TrEMBL record:
This is Unannotated protein. One of its GO terms (cellular component) is cytosol. GO terms for biological process: recombinational repair. PROSITE patterns: RECA_2 (PS50162).
């Protein structure tokens, strides 16, 4: 009997089955069986010891490590995130939720590269050739002249894709998206864990052989739970995450992993009619849009190594619901819960009978403890109906700092760079752990003495 070409391996216990089962017969876990190509029968077999010839280790000092010149895409923020451009032969995973602008960004990059005389290839399994052309037309007229010159292949069969990459030998190739390609010898549907791993692995083989840099596009759902891109993170050289709210114009591009650069940086883009435009003065824009109303405060956040000023808004309104609503966008729900608890317990701002909404303006996501104080001040100011800095302050107030469980304020990294950024944009008062040791003191400094003692109704 012919050996089956694939096996199903439990991703938890390693149990193997010829057929797929919903529940692993080995460890009884559900939905853990993943289809993989069957291992080679002999020679490189698993149990055999020292079957191959011994390799010769080389002292690292004696290794030639030629720094291949990077391929700059011409999109400044993208190049910066990659550490100075695309590394030839590297594999980059670009993740993000649908509609965020992944295809736009990759088409722009290839268009600019093609325009600069590089060999490129765009492989799309998602859209028809006509749809891609329409996008390219918009981009050609806008920020990426050269977009219409990109060689394009609309294909979902992995074998054809690999053969095309082999034949065309592009310097940079985009695969949009890794979840739409399927290897014919696996029975699983495109997008399943087994397929995604197989597709990425085989593309990587071909790419490394031909020194082709590949940008794999992958969809991630909001919670990142979808089977797919996550399983590739260990395989690729660089993981870029495209974030933001689809309905808003601002997008942030973040490096989650980078073998050839830092993971500290963030690029801010704006989606316009002719494509994505880099926002180099993000702080200036967010500050200009900041209001002076109660419930608004400017947070001096750090996006990697760059300070970024964003407006945090809060609304506190009486509620009939038990428990009342806690809605937030751009910050972590649990962080908000903690801040509300400390506000109530240590600073006399109770919100137990009110709905609380907190929003980071512009669709930016802030994931750092330094945001605590800004959230607390926005909520307190909203609860009391008093603008930060007092009624007659003309510029928005700025805050940053971590809040401890006992109501103390804790210093956060890059204190100076945050205050410098606030000063640069003329923000009047900056409330930080340096100014106030506790949350209560910060409230007094920000809302004035009288309100420090008043309670939220
Ligand atoms: P897209 O790149 O297709 O998203 P993804 O590949 O991540 O799913 O683009 C998403 C949105 O961007 C789409 O709603 C249309 C909009 N868009 C613009 O606003 N301007 C443009 O120039 C282009 C090409 C797209
Ligand atoms: Mg797309």
């Amino acid at each position: 009997m012919a050996r089956p070409a694939t096996v199903h391996i439990c991703s938890q216990c390693g149990h193997q089955e010829a057929k797929w089962h919903g529940q692993c017969p080995g460890c009884r876990a559900w939905n853990t069986l993943v289809e993989e190509r069957a291992p080679e029968p002999a020679g490189r077999g698993r149990g055999l010891r020292a079957a191959g010839a011994a390799g010769t280790p080389v002292r690292l000092r004696d290794l030639a490590a030629d720094q291949a010149p990077r391929i700059p895409t011409g999109i400044g923020e993208l190049d910066r995130l990659l550490g100075g451009g695309i590394v030839p032969g590297s594999l980059v995973l670009l993740g993000g939720s649908p509609g965020i602008g992944k295809s736009t960004l990759t088409t722009m990059a290839l268009g600019l590269l093609q325009g600069a005389g590089r060999r490129t290839l765009y492989i799309s399994g998602e859209e028809s050739a006509a749809q891609i052309r329409l996008r390219a037309e918009r981009l050609e007229a806008g920020s990426a002249p050269g977009a219409l010159d990109i060689p394009m292949l609309a294909e979902t069969d992995l074998a054809t894709v690999l053969a095309t990459m082999e034949a065309e030998r592009p310097e940079v190739c985009v695969v949009d998206s890794v979840q739409t390609l399927a290897a014919g010898d696996l029975t699983g549907a495109a997008g399943t864990v087994g397929q995604v791993r197989e597709v990425a692995g085989r593309i990587m083989e071909v790419a490394k052989r031909n020194d082709t840099a590949v940008i794999l596009v992958g969809h991630v759902t909001k919670d990142g739970a979808l089977a797919g891109p996550r399983v590739l993170e260990h395989l690729v050289d660089c993981v870029l995450q495209f974030e933001g709210e689809k309905e808003r114009t601002y997008r942030t591009l973040r490096a989650l992993k980078n073998r050839f650069g830092s993971t500290n940086d963030v690029g801010v883009f704006e989606m316009r009619d002719g494509g994505l435009v880099e926002v180099l003065d993000a702080s200036a824009r967010f500050v200009a849009e900041a209001t002076r109303a109660p419930g608004s405060v400017v947070l001096a956040a750090m996006e990697g190594s760059r300070p970024l000023l964003v407006e945090v808004q809060a609304l506190v309104s009486p509620s009939e619901l038990v428990p009342p609503r806690r809605v937030c966008a751009g910050i972590d729900r649990n962080r908000l819960a903690l801040v509300l608890a400390v506000l109530a317990r240590h600073a006399g701002v109770g919100t137990g009978t009110a709905d609380v909404f907190v929003n980071v303006v512009g669709g930016v996501r802030v994931d750092e403890p330094g945001a605590d104080l800004a959230i607390a001040l926005a909520v307190a100011s909203a609860a009391r109906g008093v603008p930060l800095g007092g009624e007659d302050a003309r510029v928005p107030a700025c805050a940053f700092g971590e809040i401890g469980l006992t109501g103390e304020l804790r210093t956060v990294a890059h204190h100076d760079r945050r205050t410098d950024e606030a000063a640069k944009f003329g923000l009047g008062i900056v409330i930080s752990p340096d100014v106030a040791p506790t949350l209560r003191a910060a409230l007094t400094a920000a809302l004035g003495r009288a309100s420090g003692a008043r309670r939220a109704a």
